[in-house]
Specification:
This protein has 13 helices and 26 strands. By secondary structure, it is of the alpha/beta class. The chain has a 4-stranded mixed sheet with strand order 23-25-1-26. A 4-stranded mixed sheet has the order 2-15-17-16. Strands 4-5-3-14 form a 4-stranded mixed sheet, with helices on one face. Strand 8 and strand 9 form a beta hairpin. The longest helix has 13 residues. The structure holds uridine-diphosphate-2(N-acetylglucosaminyl) butyric acid. Uridine-diphosphate-2(N-acetylglucosaminyl) butyric acid binds next to helix 1, helix 4, helix 5 and helix 11.
Length: 418
């Protein structure tokens, strides 16, 4: 297993180009199954989760051709069913999108249950309630899920919680449902809008993505298209937080600044300077930072996926702060690793009380999941001495060229291959 070795102390400087959005790509790639035609998808991040999705599509008969490093052609016309016997879906959470697209196109799906980061219970009940409302029958057993429908008929679906996965999955399935489907209390994350835009580019009729109510008017056919994935809000936020933690001055390039407002607002409240230029942001240290309280919320609130790097930033500035994790019940496990680096954090249920100090100290720590891993890199950058991070395959699942991007910003980080 590879590991990262980081020597702390460098202030990040320079420019970082942001890759395509992991969580949008993981919805857009399977969406190509809905059209029996060729699609070209651009700005795809070359990360491990995307490679797994490519393998899943290959395994059911799709033709995939890389056009360049970040663009690929997907032709799903030869797929005749979704009946997956291999273990690939267990490797990623986003394999659940095969349910919505498979029901939509074939009215039948059979495959292993998804995997993903261990950050809580992560049930699927909203997805299933949505599919059932559209007329599907869902059976879960022996780590396997089977979904069937004779007909899909549009319905009014209210989500108890604005779940990202359920909103996208129901939207995908409803593209081919007869009549109108309405999703109320829909999630509003940028990748909901990106997936809806992709589906519409193929000929779907979806309105309201990005608001609480999404209306899908069923169609009978989709056609191929060329589409570019939006920039990764979470990757951009990670580098913004790293710039603040290292008292740096960096340009985050190739982004949609609006998607970063929850992070921008918190960093400004802490005392960071932020300048916006069209599709880039300058994030720069200008004065001693002050602690803030953070509560993770669905978009446009502060994203849960940046809770961990934010905890590192707050641990490395003097003063007391509180983080409340309202999305996942078990996303504080990484704090035991941060404590090895000298962080003073006490967790009480969904609340973390942080007593910040000027420096953390280098140690040997283990990445527990994707975002926890990113947080440990930030911790290594603000620590005195050397930090060794093991289990870095988690970061490779979701961050493209992470060590090169940090190195280009002046960080002392290297990957050691065992
Ligand atoms: N939930 C249910 N029932 C459901 C669905 C969700 O109770 O049927 C609960 C979850 O347990 C969780 C909350 O609702 O407590 C939010 O879950 P949501 O469905 O919104 O999340 P997700 O679709 O499982 C996606 C991202 C996550 C990101 C969340 C929130 C993908 C593949 N994953 O997960 O990304 O944290 O939305 O924004 O898109 C990551 O990138 O590191 C990551 C974990």
């Amino acid at each position: 297993m590879s590991k990262f070795i980081i020597e702390g102390g460098a202030k990040l400087k320079g420019k970082v180009n942001i890759s395509g959005f992991k969580n949008a790509t993981l919805a857009i790639i399977p969406s190509t199954i809905l059209c029996k035609d060729k699609c070209i998808i651009e700005n795809i991040p070359m990360i491990e989760d995307v490679k797994v999705y490519k393998e899943i599509l290959y395994s059911i008969g799709a033709e995939i051709e890389m056009i360049d490093e970040n663009s690929m052609m997907v032709d799903t016309s030869n797929i005749s069913e979704i009946n997956i016997l291999n273990e690939l879906p267990r490797k990623i959470r986003g394999s659940y999108y095969m349910w919505g697209v498979g029901l939509g196109r074939f009215k039948h799906v059979s495959m292993p249950l998804p995997g993903g980061c261990a950050i809580g219970d992560r049930p699927f009940d909203y997805h299933i309630k949505g599919f059932e409302a559209l007329g599907a029958k869902v059976v879960i057993g022996d780590d396997k899920i089977t979904l069937d429908a004779d007909r899909l008929i549009g319905a009014k679906i209210y989500l108890d919680f604005a779940s990202v996965g359920a909103t996208i999955n129901i939207m995908m399935c409803a593209v081919y449902a007869e009549g109108i489907t309405t999703i109320e209390n829909a999630a509003k994350e940028p990748h909901i809008v990106d997936t809806a835009n992709f589906l519409n580019a193929m000929g779907a009729d979806i309105k309201g993505a990005g608001t609480d109510i999404i209306r899908i008017n069923g169609v009978t056919e989709l056609k191929g298209c060329t589409y570019g994935v939006i920039p990764d809000q979470i990757e951009a936020g990670t580098y913004m937080i790293a710039a603040a933690a290292t008292q740096g001055d960096i340009i985050i390039d190739g982004i949609i600044p609006k998607h970063l407002e929850p992070i921008t607002a918190k960093l400004i409240e802490m005392g960071m300077g932020i300048e916006e230029y069209g599709d880039s942001l300058r994030v720069y240290y200008k004065q001693k930072l002050v602690p803030v309280n953070v509560k993770t919320l669905p978009y446009p609130g502060f994203p849960t996926d940046l809770q961990q790097p934010m905890a590192v930033l707050l641990s490395s500035i003097e003063g007391n702060s509180i983080i409340e994790e309202s999305i996942y019940e078990d996303r504080f496990k990484y704090i035991q690793e941060l404590k090895k680096m000298g962080a003073d954090i006490e967790v009480n249920g969904r609340i973390a009380h942080i007593k910040g100090k000027e420096h953390l100290c280098g140690s040997t720590v283990k990445a527990m999941d994707l975002r926890a891993g990113a947080a440990l890199i930030v911790a290594g950058l603000v620590s005195k001495g050397i930090t060794e991070i093991t289990d870095i395959h988690h970061m490779d699942r979701g961050y493209e060229n992470i060590e090169n991007k940090f190195m280009n910003l002046g960080a002392n980080i290297k990957r050691i291959k065992d």
